[in-house]
Amino acid sequence: MRTLLIILSTFLEIQLYFTGSRAEQQQSLRVSNELVSLNSSEDESEDVVEGPIREVLAQSGSTANLPCKITEPGAGTITWMKRKNRRLLTVGTSTHSVDKRFVVMHSSTDWLLQIRAVTLQDEGIYECQVTSHPVQRNFVLLKVTEAYSIIPGAPDLHVKQGSSLRLECQLKAAAESPLYVFWYRQGHMINYDEELGVKVELTKNGSILMVNKTKPSHGGNYTCSPSNAKSAYVMVHVIEEEEKPAAMHGGDRRNLSPAILASNFLVSLLAAVSWRIPSFTSLYPT
Question: Which of 133, 228, 246, 261 could form an SS bridge with 251, CB 3.0 to 4.6 Å?
Answer without folding.
Answer: 246
